[in-house]
Amino acid sequence: MYVIVVYDVDVKRVSKVHRFLRTHLHWRQNSVFEGEVTRAQLYEIKRTLEDLIEDNDSVLIYELPGSNFTLHVIGTDKSPVGEII
Amino acid sequence: MYVIVVYDVDVKRVSKVHRFLRTHLHWRQNSVFEGEVTRAQLYEIKRTLEDLIEDNDSVLIYELPGSNFTLHVIGTDKSPVGEII
Question: Quick one: which H or E segment has residue A28?
């Protein structure tokens, strides 16, 4: 499955979350990661993020059935991966 | 089609981009919008964003074939919509 991860966390925890996600996924843009993962990897990503974040932090993981989405880039693509429209 | 819009724009332009996207889509989290749009609406969103942003700004629009993705929320859901896992 393909996932898009976006997060809105306290500035104190941003680098911790960023460093962790970078070990599993592709950095796309400020607070945005994406990539192909297995069910087990998704479970581990969720479990670790639950430990890393606190209180009012928020992480959204969009789990897509596959990577058959289309990506439209407007302005600068800060970290190109795959096909761009 | 369903779209997820994430943006990384200069602080001077954040509120302009936010105000515009709010007229078409659901605010989800800091710099993240999503929602169902037609092809014509997607075209207008892209065209208007091209006018609003500058230089090193970046907007990514993930166009999904439908809304059959699964959303995993970790921590706080800043603006619930639809089904949450």
Answer: strand A26-29
Q: Which of A7, A48, A56, A69 to mutate to test the interface with B (most CBs of B within 10 A)?
A: A69
Say how far apart CA A40 and CA A46 lie, in whole Å: 10
Domain enclosing residue B43, as ranges: 2-64
Is B8 annotated as ligand-binding? Answer: yes
Question: How many residues are recorded in chain B?
Answer: 85
Contact B62 A71 (CB under 8 A): yes
Please state the ipTM of this predicted complex.
0.89
pLDDT band at A82 (very low <50, low <70, confident <90, very high): low
In a domain, B40, yes or no: yes
- Does the residue A53 lie in any domain? yes
Best B18, B74, B84 residue to mutate vs chain A (most A CBs within 10 Å): B74
As for how many domains chain B has, the answer is 1
- Which residues in chain A have their CB less than 8 angstroms from residue B64's CB? 64, 69
Q: Supply the mean pLDDT for chain B.
A: 92
Q: CATH code at A15? A: 3.30.70.240
Render pLDDT for B28-46 as a digit per residue (tens, 0 to 9).
999 999 999 999 999 999 9
